[in-house]
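Example 3.
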Amino acid sequence: MEFNLSTFIFEIINFLILIWILQRLFYKPLLEVIERRKQFIDQSLNDAKNLKQQAEEQCNRYENRQKLWEEEKQAALTALHRQLEAERRAHLDRLNADLEQERQKANVLLSKQRRELQQQVEKQALLNGAKFAGMLLQQSAGPELEARLFTLLMDNLVTLPEACKLCLTMFGTKKSVPVKITSAYPLSVEMRQQLEQKLGALINSQINFQYHQDQLLIAGLRMDIGAWVLNVNLQHELTGFAEIANEPE
Amino acid sequence: MENEFTFALGPVAIGTSVITTWGIMLVITLIAWLSTRHLDMLLPGKLQTTVEGIVAAIDEAVAAVAPEHGRQIMPFIASLWLFLIIANLVGLIPGLHSPTRDLSVTSALAILVFFSVHWFGIKTQGLKNYLHHYLSPSPILLPFHILSELTRTLALAIRLFGNMMSLEMAAMLVLLVAGFLAPIPILMLHIIEALVQAYIFGMLALIYLAGAIQSQQLNSQE
């Protein structure tokens, strides 16, 4: 165990030089690289953290926006359903009203058709009745029926309405009143006297009687006193019967 | 164990320890230059990854003991560790001897530690504050502080010198006695002992430096 001063001093110098060399060549560059890498990693971590934070914020924002969209969509759907329901109800009401109107129209048309049919049936029945009655009366007409209708005329002249009586009275202002009497069968003298006597009582003027015969009357008489005509014959009755059938409603 | 001298520069004799130290310095410098020639921040190579791992591990160890002034003392401590590891292991190479089996070498390293402690202590705290810690907790303890400084420096030098010298001597004796049966276990023991002694010397130096730097802070806390 020897101690050598020169070795001691050389070792001190050597070690100081070694420290200096290593500091320049080894520690400093390596620590700088490590530090730069650490800063780079820290920066990358910070960037990643910021990116993550931004991504989370965007995610939250988009989730909120999506939620709002969902709510808006739900509200729009609800409004649309309400509108559709309202339009459906309105359309249904219109359809029901149209249907009711069509139903009423159909009912009216059906009633009208029924009435027309009934009228046609009635008209046909009246025409048939008139035709049948005409045929029957033509076959059954004769002097007896003529006499019977003459009696009926006499009774009617007695029971004339006041208006008719007034009308006949007004003929009294004329000097001569022509009276045309048409019958289906010739009137007897007695029947003519009764008739002239009756009319003379009703008209206070001179009456000019003219007697005619017309087979078309079938039975009965027709009196033409000026413009006033009095029919008591079957032909007139049958014509009136037929006219009833032809009268409009 | 005599200090063998190879040549002399005038009155100054150059021993084998100095020459071996120069060789170690050359190797370390070469490795440092090769490993830091093309540093890549993002894609480091195998050599760069290895030396970065070594430097980062030393830096973390220093920072764990002296968190606030780690970067100041790290070059000194790291250089101690790297030099001692290689210097302790160089004895495994046939024909070479560890410089650390030389008391002059270990004394030089211990003296450097001694002065470094005061240098960093004064640098960080100032002369007055640094010297004040020798008077705490009581001025009576000043001689003991001074004695402690001297003895621990001496202990540093003697511990490393004694262990390495005894290790080589024991290995030589075992080899003489056991012949070819013992070399491998002895070599493994040599490796472990070399690493442990380097670690102990560096760690003690680190603790002494950290103690000197943080002594004023401890006094303030007390």
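The mean pLDDT of chain B is 86. Chain B touches chain A through 48 residues (CB under 8 Å).
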